[in-house]
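Title: [Solved] Octopamine receptor beta-2R 3D structure

Original question kept below for reference.
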Amino acid sequence: MDQVNVTRNVTGNTTAADEDEWPQVVMFKIRTAVLLLIVIMAVLGNLLVIVSVMRHRKLRVITNYFVVSLAFADILVAMVVMPFNFSVQFYNEWIFGTVICDLWNSSDVYFTSTSILHLCCISVDRYYAIVKPLKYPIKMTKKMAFVMLAATWLSPITISYAPIFMGWYTTNEYIQTRELNQCEFKVNKPYAVISSSISFWIPCTIMIFTYLAIFKEANRQEKALHARAGNAMLMHRHSREVGDKNGALHINANTPTKDRNILKMKREHKAARTLGIIMGAFILCWLPFFLFYLSTSLCDTCKYPEVVTVIMFWTGYFNSALNPIIYAYFNRDFRNAFKNTLACAFCSFCKRSASDLDALERLDRRSSAQLRVPIPSRRASDLASL
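Solution (posted by the thread starter after getting help):
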C-alpha cells in the first residue's frame, strides 16, 4: 500500500514538473524561431540590396554607394555578431572562451558604430543634394565618397578592437573574477561615455540637424513648385483664351530641361524621405539600448533582469533586417529592382541581363512620355511636318 502511495506521489510530482516546464519549452522554441528569423532576414534582405544595385544601372548613384556599404555592414552583423548572441540564448552560457568573447564584443561595437556612421554619411550626402544642389557635384564626387567610406570603416576600430583587446574598456574587478563560461560586456564609466558618444550620440545629433535642414528646404521647394505650377496653369489658360480669339494654336511652354529638373528634384526628395525613415528606424531600434547601456554603466547599484539585456540587444539587431523592408516599401526604384532580381533568381526562364532590363525601362519611359504629350503640342508638330 505504501509502495502504491509512493508511486502515485512520484507520478504526481512528475506531471506537475512537466506542466511547469511546458510553458518554458514553448517560449524557448518561439524565442529561438524569432531570433533565427531575424538572422535570416538580415542576411538575405541586405544581400538582395547589394545584388539589386549591382544589376541595375539606375541605382548606381553616389548615395547608393553608402547604402550598399551599409548593407554589407548589416550582413556582417548578422553573420559575425548575431550567431554568438544566439548561442548564448540557446545554451544559456558562453562556450567559446575568453578570446572569442573579446572578439564578439569588439565586433558588436565595431559594426554598430559603422552602421550609424554610414547613416551619418548618407545624411550629409542628402544635405548637399537638396540644401546645396549647386555644390553637390563638386563636393560629393566618387573620390570623396570613397574617402568617407574608408573613414567610416576605419574609425570605429579606436573604440572597439583596440580598447577591448587591451583591456581598457572594463574594470579590474571584472578582469580578476572573469569566468570562462560567461561573456559579459562589463565596461567602466569613461569607456561607456566615450564609446556611446562616438557610436551613437554625436552622429545621431548630426543626423537630426541635417535632416531638419533637409526637410525644411524640401518643404520650401515643394511650396515653390506648387506656386510655379499654379502660375503656369493660369498662363496656360490665358494664352489658350487669347489663342482661341485670334484663331491661333497654343504651343506648350514647358521645356524638356525644366521637366528634367522637376523630376530630379522630386527624385531627390523621395530619396531623402526614404533615408530619413531609415534613420528614424535606426534611432528607434538603438536609442533604448544606448539609454540602457549608459544608465546601467554609470549606476553601480542598479539591478535589472537579464531578459531586459536580451531584448535591448535584439531590438538593435533587428534594425539590420529592417532596412531592406524600408527600401522595398518606400522606394519605387528599389522595389522594382527587388522584384526583378527575385524573378531572375527564382524563375529559370528569365534570361535577360541587367542592361537589357535598363533598356526596356528607358523604352517604357519614352512611350509613356509620348502618351502624355499635350494635344496642342501634337498639333503643332503635325503642322510643322506638313
